[in-house]
């Protein structure tokens, strides 16, 4: 009987040890996308999803990643590489979601096109503030990127909050103020078709009017556009470059031109190197696409997050 109990006891101990070894061998649960509520002022009832990598850095950088019309924060999370890159580099990603009909962001009302005027930009600014307070984020490394409607919002956020964002990357968007309509309308066909053409000074004045009296540094801007974009047509690429070179007070003549990939033409304005004031990447034969095929990594290099 004693031998039987001893055997059973040893077997039980073996099971306990095996279970402990399995727990040690099993990796920690991977980071997941989490919805955050009550993050601050949110006049247009945006939703906020947050991705914090398991290996988040001390005083992490923050990337706001803004979706396209008909999309959502979770869809942009799953359809782009920004979360995977956050795992590699330890930054936090905020994914806002528009909630109005069509899920487009407000880049067209008077409220949206001025600092603290209301609507979506205020809600996104609150999301950034929440992350800064909750995770001790580095205020000198706050960035924004987006595609289509999100690219338009990237332009708007850089104009409204130049003291918050250090740089932006706009994929297939339009200049700040180009979609403005009176009365407000979610779509501006003239701008979408590339028919709104202004001087660099006029475009720059629209940005400066969003935050009157501001004299501090301006966020750097990276602009991406496909030559075959039929949703937001290719002339908007050149208009954005006119706008942001004027905002930065640099020449419209590029200081360097290269081809980082086949059919990609990259121009840099105001400085060489990976972090110039303004950078444009023209994608020959590409339509209205999400950032893919190394585009997200190039945006992070422009931000200075991969060095």
TrEMBL record:
Gene Ontology molecular function, alphabetical: hydrolase activity
One Pfam family this sequence matches: Esterase_PHB
Signal peptide: 1-30
UniProt organism field: Actinophytocola xanthii
Highest taxon above the source species: Bacteria
Keyword Aminoacyl-tRNA synthetase: no
One CC-aspect GO term: extracellular region
Protein name: Esterase
């Amino acid at each position: 009987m004693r031998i039987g109990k001893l055997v059973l006891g040893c077997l039980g101990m073996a099971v306990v040890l095996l279970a402990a070894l399995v727990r040690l061998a099993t990796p920690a649960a991977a980071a997941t996308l989490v919805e955050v509520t009550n993050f601050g002022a949110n006049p247009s009832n945006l939703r906020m999803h947050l991705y914090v990598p398991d290996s988040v850095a001390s005083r992490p950088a923050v990337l706001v990643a803004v979706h396209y019309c008909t999309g959502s924060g979770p869809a942009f999370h799953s359809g782009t590489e920004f979360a995977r890159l956050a795992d590699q580099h330890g930054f936090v990603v905020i994914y806002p979601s528009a909630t109005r009909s069509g899920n487009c962001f407000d880049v067209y009302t008077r409220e949206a096109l001025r600092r603290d005027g209301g609507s979506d930009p205020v809600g996104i600014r609150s999301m950034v503030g929440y992350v800064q307070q909750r995770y001790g984020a580095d205020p000198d490394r706050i960035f924004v990127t987006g595609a289509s409607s999100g690219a338009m919002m990237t332009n708007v956020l850089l104009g409204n909050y130049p003291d918050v964002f250090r740089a932006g990357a706009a994929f297939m968007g339009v200049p700040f103020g180009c979609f403005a309509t009176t009365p407000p309308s979610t779509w501006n066909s003239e701008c979408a078709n590339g028919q709104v053409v202004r001087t660099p000074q006029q475009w720059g004045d629209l940005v400066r009017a969003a935050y009157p009296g501001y004299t501090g540094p301006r966020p750097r801007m990276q602009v991406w556009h496909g030559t075959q974009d039929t949703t937001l047509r290719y002339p908007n690429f050149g208009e954005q470059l006119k706008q942001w070179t004027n905002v930065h007070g640099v020449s419209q003549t590029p200081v360097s031109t290269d081809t980082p990939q086949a059919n990609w033409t990259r121009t840099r304005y105001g400085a060489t190197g990976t972090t110039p004031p303004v950078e444009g990447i023209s994608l020959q034969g590409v339509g209205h696409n999400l950032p893919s095929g190394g585009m997200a990594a190039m945006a992070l290099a422009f931000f200075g997050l991969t060095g």
